[in-house]
């Protein structure tokens, strides 16, 4: 068997020998004596055109009646057609029918809306758009691992089931083996988790950061790459309840190292995709977002902008825009503000650093001004926030005081304080939302369309 990808990418010599391909019928046009069959074999976004002639095929009449999505195994001669739309075609000598599809197959030739395709998540990878998106998802994951491994980062698998709330935002999914209709109660009327599976309250992780920090203080450079869960009440196109995050963590590194490393990583991934997913990116550029390739080239060619939160507020206050949420030093930037900065003010990715300490997580390092922390968000055009990171508070006494100030139970974070107690080290890290990155590199506008089986508040089907 031959893969169609190898034919398009010339990994294989065109010889006179007959070849065999297996795939699914995408379209058939036929007249009485000849049929043109487009077959996709899964190895490449492009189909192979098969020419079937009545006088050359014993089962011609059965073949031309096949419904779309039927499975076939075709043997024939490959003929180069330099003047035609496709560079070659397969002249069938034998067509084995391996599976006849039901004629009411939902993906007929017409273009379907993305909304409709979400209702058939099990079939949508068969469309060109989702084929490209999920191919890119796989290649991007590989490129991320490749870049980080190349720079000596050790991959650490942090737990999915946890007892802490890393981000302190209270957006966790609880997990429990208790019978919801008959929960045991303590004397003061609370749920008695001592009878739960782990003997305590547990939840799905919102971030692997705290556990991976411990590994950074042993291996120097480490990263997580896994699923995270947030029960956020955000009905936007950029929030999912289950999403993947890449969290690199570096010992002996400060905030500037976070900016440099994350910019290097993003550019590497985009360059990798431009090289290894060019047919898919071209398809998405032609059919989904006409500015996609330009944006990606621009992203790798230009330095990202770097400003402080205070400068960002200044830019927003001077902007000739009526923001829904008024701008004032101390506010958490809203998505309209983030979009303005990335799209209008800079027209490229922009790092915003040194946010007010009160709107950020407890573990971020206090700046000498005592008003801000060594935090960074990367804002990118079309998406808004793509990365969140910071230098971590490595001073045991400062961290302990801050945990108290932020109302964190000391017993639960004893181990986290011990990382400082036993040789505190300057260290920093960041988290990339994998799906946000995929939206950026595919041009897709909704996070539901870059996740194979999205988990979004309000519904779950697959
Ligand atoms: O900014 P966040 O909350 O940062 C952290 O979790 C840190 N512990 C990261 C670190 O320093 N190691 O989340 C990081 C990124 C966001 O910038 C965003 O891209 C993505 O994760 N993200 C989501 N993506 C999809 N759906 C959601 N509900 C998301 N919440 C965050
Ligand atoms: Mg964030």
Automatic annotation (TrEMBL):
Q: Enzyme class, one word?
A: ligase
InterPro entries (alphabetical)? Aa-tRNA-synt_II (IPR004364), aa-tRNA-synth_II (IPR006195), aa-tRNA-synth_II/BPL/LPL (IPR045864), Asn-tRNA-ligase (IPR004522), Asp/Asn-tRNA-synth_IIb (IPR002312), NA-bd_OB-fold (IPR012340), NA-bd_OB_tRNA (IPR004365)
Q: Which GO terms describe its cellular component?
A: cytoplasm
Q: A single GO molecular function, which one?
A: ATP binding
- Catalytic activity line of the entry: tRNA(Asn) + L-asparagine + ATP = L-asparaginyl-tRNA(Asn) + AMP + diphosphate + H(+)
Q: So which domain of life are we looking at?
A: Bacteria
Known EC number: 6.1.1.22
GO biological process, any: asparaginyl-tRNA aminoacylation
**CDD domains for this protein:** AsxRS_core (cd00776), EcAsnRS_like_N (cd04318)
Q: Which Pfam families match?
A: tRNA-synt_2, tRNA_anti-codon
Q: Keyword check for Cytoplasm, yes or no.
A: yes
User: Where is it localised?
Assistant: Cytoplasm
Q: Where is the Aminoacyl-transfer RNA synthetases class-II family profile domain?
A: 134-452
Quaternary form? Answer: Homodimer.
Alphabetized PANTHER family for the sequence: ASPARAGINE--TRNA LIGASE, MITOCHONDRIAL-RELATED, ASPARTYL/LYSYL-TRNA SYNTHETASE
Family the entry assigns: Belongs to the class-II aminoacyl-tRNA synthetase family.
Q: What is this protein called?
A: Asparagine--tRNA ligase
Organism, as annotated: Fructilactobacillus lindneri DSM 20690 = JCM 11027
């Amino acid at each position: 068997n031959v893969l169609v990808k190898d034919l398009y990418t010339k990994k294989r010599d065109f010889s006179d020998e007959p070849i065999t391909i297996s795939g699914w019928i995408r379209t058939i046009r036929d007249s009485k004596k000849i049929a043109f069959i487009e077959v996709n074999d899964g190895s490449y976004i492009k189909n192979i055109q098969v020419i079937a002639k009545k006088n050359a095929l014993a089962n011609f009449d059965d073949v031309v009646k096949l419904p779309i999505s039927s499975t076939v195994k075709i043997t024939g001669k490959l003929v180069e057609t330099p003047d035609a739309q496709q560079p070659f075609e397969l002249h069938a000598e034998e067509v084995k029918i391996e599976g006849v599809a039901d004629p009411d197959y939902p993906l007929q030739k017409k273009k379907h809306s993305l909304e409709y395709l979400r209702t058939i998540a099990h079939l949508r990878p068969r469309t060109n758009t989702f084929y490209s998106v999920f191919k890119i998802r796989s290649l991007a994951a590989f490129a991320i691992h490749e870049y980080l491994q190349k720079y000596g980062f050790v991959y650490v698998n942090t737990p999915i089931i946890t007892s802490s709330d890393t981000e302190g935002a209270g957006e966790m999914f609880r997990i429990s083996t208790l019978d919801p209709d008959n929960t045991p109660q303590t004397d003061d009327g609370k749920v008695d988790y001592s009878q739960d599976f782990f003997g305590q309250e547990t939840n799905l992780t919102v971030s692997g950061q705290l556990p991976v920090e411990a590994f950074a203080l042993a291996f120097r450079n480490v990263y997580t790459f896994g699923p995270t869960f947030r029960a956020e009440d955000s009905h936007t196109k950029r929030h999912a309840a289950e999403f993947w995050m890449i969290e690199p963590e570096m010992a002996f590194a400060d905030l500037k190292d976070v900016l440099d490393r994350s910019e290097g990583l993003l550019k590497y991934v985009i360059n990798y995709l431009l090289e290894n997913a060019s047919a898919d990116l071209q398809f998405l550029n032609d059919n989904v977002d006409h500015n996609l390739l330009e944006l990606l080239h621009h992203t790798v060619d230009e330095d990202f902008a770097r400003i402080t939160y205070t400068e960002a507020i200044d830019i927003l206050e001077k902007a000739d825009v009526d923001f829904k949420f008024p701008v004032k030093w101390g506010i958490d930037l809203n998505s309209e503000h983030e979009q303005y900065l990335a799209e209008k003010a800079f027209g490229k990715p922009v790092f915003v650093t040194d946010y007010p300490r009160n709107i950020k997580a407890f573990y971020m390092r206090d700046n000498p001004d005592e008003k801000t922390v060594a935090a960074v968000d990367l804002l990118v055009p079309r998406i808004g926030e793509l990365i969140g990171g910071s230098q971590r508070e490595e001073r045991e006494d400062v961290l302990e005081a801050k945990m108290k100030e932020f109302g964190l139970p000391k017993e639960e974070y004893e181990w986290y304080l011990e990382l400082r107690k036993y040789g505190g080290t300057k260290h920093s890290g960041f988290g990339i939302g994998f799906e946000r990155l995929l939206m950026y590199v595919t041009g897709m506008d909704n996070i539901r369309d870059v996740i194979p089986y999205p988990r979004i508040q309000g519904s779950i089907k697959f």
